[in-house]
Amino acid sequence: MSDFPVVSMGENVTRQVLSEAPELMVVAFRFEAEGAVGALHNHPHVQSTYVESGRYRFTLGDKEQEFGPGDSFVIPSGQTHGCVCLEPGTLVDCFTPRREDFL
């Protein structure tokens, strides 16, 4: 269990830092309803995403791709990305270096 708070990221989406160090951060994003949105954004951190549960349509740069349980992928530094939840579930994201804005 994480000692970090659950933070709302918008309607039906929350995040919770699971663990962190200066070089790496692990964060759970929970999507509670079909149609919940992880807004398009970019950041300087390299991100890996693991789909723990649910199904999502991701925009990665100028491409769209669907991912489901057990899938994982890496988002390069600076790439615009976001998702729409197709089936409720949880994404586990790792960031390097850590996201100071999440602390």
What does this structure look like?
This protein is mainly β. The protein has no helices and ten strands. A hairpin with a 2-residue loop joins strand 6 (55-60) and strand 7 (63-67). The strands form two sheets. The protein has a six-stranded antiparallel sheet with strand order 1-2-3-10-5-8, with no helix packed on it. Strands 4-9-6-7 form a four-stranded antiparallel sheet, with no helix packed on it. Residues 34-87 form the Cupin type-2 domain. InterPro entries: Bacilysin_H2HPP_isomerase, Cupin_2, KdgF, RmlC-like_jellyroll, RmlC_Cupin_sf. This is Cupin domain-containing protein.
CATH superfamily: Jelly Rolls
Instruction: State the share of residues found in helices, binned by percent.
Output: under 10%
The third-level CATH topology is: Jelly Rolls
Calculate Rg over CA atoms. Answer: 13 Å
CATH structural architecture: Sandwich
Report how far the terminal alpha carbons are from each other: 17 Å
Unreliable spans are none
Pfam family, one: Cupin_2
Organism: Halocynthiibacter halioticoli
InterPro entries: Bacilysin_H2HPP_isomerase (IPR052535), Cupin_2 (IPR013096), KdgF (IPR025499), RmlC-like_jellyroll (IPR014710), RmlC_Cupin_sf (IPR011051)
Protein name: Cupin domain-containing protein
Which terms summarize this structure?
103 residues, mainly beta, Jelly Rolls, six-stranded antiparallel sheet, four-stranded antiparallel sheet, 10 strands, 0% helix, 60% strand, Cupin_2, RmlC-like_jellyroll, Cupin domain-containing protein, KdgF
